[in-house]
């Protein structure tokens, strides 16, 4: 059994009511519950955390390394465009990850076009709404199966 950690950055706790025309109508719990079920169906364990605090996300990544997390699905949200500290944490962890964005950040304001994570990620999925998380999970499971 492998362990996959899903990390959600700031304001994603507001999904469903926050700009639904941009981020969709599903709640974060809806998304996490679906991912948990999909992972469990194939015998893997899924953990998740949403935080509005950069340090909490950093510390969760530090813990992930020691607890043997095999893969991270990461939507850094606004920290995507600002956080060298989170970039350093996930680099130091050595854990492979996929960067996910619900919206197409490249079709939005210019400041959203830069990511501190895309060049070090296994892959980047953006603009597909919550389906991006499902696709990232599928990619994670395929990588885990290749390596085991
Ligand atoms: O599309 C998303 O999931 C990302 C979510 C956010 O909260 C924004 O700050 C990012 O710019 C985009």
Automatic annotation (TrEMBL):
It catalyses: 3-dehydroquinate = 3-dehydroshikimate + H2O. Its EC number is 4.2.1.10. It comes from the Bacteria. GO terms for molecular function: 3-dehydroquinate dehydratase activity. Substrate binds at residues 75, 81, 88, 102-103, 112. NCBIfam families: aroQ, PRK05395.1-1, PRK05395.1-2, PRK05395.1-3, PRK05395.1-4. HAMAP family: AroQ. Catalyzes a trans-dehydration via an enolate intermediate. This is 3-dehydroquinate dehydratase. It comes from Marinobacter vulgaris.
């Amino acid at each position: 059994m492998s362990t996959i950690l899903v990390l959600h950055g700031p304001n994603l706790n507001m999904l469903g009511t926050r700009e639904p025309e941009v981020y969709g109508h599903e709640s974060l719990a809806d998304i996490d519950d679906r991912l948990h079920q999909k992972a469990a169906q194939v015998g893997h364990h899924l953990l998740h955390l949403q935080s509005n605090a950069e340090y909490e996300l950093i510390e969760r990544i530090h813990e992930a390394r020691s607890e043997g997390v095999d893969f991270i699905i990461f939507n850094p949200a606004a920290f995507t465009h600002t956080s060298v500290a989170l970039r350093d944490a996930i680099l130091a962890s050595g854990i492979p990850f996929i960067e996910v964005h619900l919206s197409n950040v490249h079709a939005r304001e210019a400041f959203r076009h830069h990511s501190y994570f895309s060049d070090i990620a296994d892959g980047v999925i953006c603009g597909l709404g919550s389906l991006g998380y499902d696709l990232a999970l599928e990619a994670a499971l395929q990588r885990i199966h290749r390596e085991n």
